């Protein structure tokens, strides 16, 4: 019978050992740095991340933005608002910038406010949909209006645009 294996953090087997049964040698580090896993690329700045341009990255983008808001000292109601606003901004970026490999998200904290910038590859300006009451879709910019302190957009020099929103507390 081989070495006893126990469950560690997040259901991983711990300690990680080679399958040869040698319990004295730990498993070597993965060939890819952890920062490239699961569609997330961490830049040198802890307040900026690149996510894969896919709906499957939405949960990671929301969790990351909520963590930035908590780090900034935002109360729970503000963190919840950040979650909703990021959901709308990130979903719009995925939906309206097809073909872009990544969506870059940046967080900037100032005294009692946090601003998030969502960079995508589409150069077209965000447009509000009107007359869609009761229909799904087309409500993202109305939601940003309702829950954020301010929001806007600007074109990027190399193409694409940045949609930003600020939440104050």
TrEMBL record:
Record-linked InterPro entries: Anti-sigma-factor_SerPK, HATPase_C_sf, HATPase_dom
Gene Ontology MF: a single term: ATP binding
Domain of life: Bacteria
Gene3D superfamilies: Histidine kinase-like ATPase, C-terminal domain
Region (Disordered): 1-47
Chain segments annotated as transmembrane: none
Histidine kinase/HSP90-like ATPase domain mapped to chain residues: 51-166
Keyword Transferase: yes
Basic residues bias (residue ranges): 1-19
Keyword match Magnesium: no
Record's keyword terms, sorted: ATP-binding, Kinase, Nucleotide-binding, Serine/threonine-protein kinase, Transferase
PANTHER family per UniProt: ANTI-SIGMA-F FACTOR RSBW, ANTI-SIGMA-F FACTOR RSBW-RELATED
Full protein name: ATP-binding region ATPase domain protein
């Amino acid at each position: 019978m081989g070495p006893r294996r126990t469950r560690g953090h997040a259901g991983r087997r711990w300690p990680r050992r080679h399958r040869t049964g040698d319990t004295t040698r730990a498993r070597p580090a993965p060939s890819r740095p952890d920062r490239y896993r699961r569609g997330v690329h961490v830049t040198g700045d802890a307040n900026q991340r690149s996510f894969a341009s896919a709906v499957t990255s939405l949960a990671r983008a929301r969790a990351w933005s909520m963590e930035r808001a908590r780090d900034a000292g935002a109360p729970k109601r503000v963190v919840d608002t950040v979650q909703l606003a990021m959901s709308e901004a990130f979903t719009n970026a995925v939906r309206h910038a097809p073909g872009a490999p990544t969506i870059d998200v940046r967080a900037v904290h100032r005294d009692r406010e946090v601003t998030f910038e969502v960079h995508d590859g589409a150069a077209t300006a965000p447009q509000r949909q009107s007359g869609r009451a009761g229909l799904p879709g087309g409500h993202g910019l109305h939601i940003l209006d309702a829950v954020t302190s301010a929001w806007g957009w600007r074109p990027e020099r190399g193409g694409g645009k940045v949609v930003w929103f600020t939440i104050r507390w």
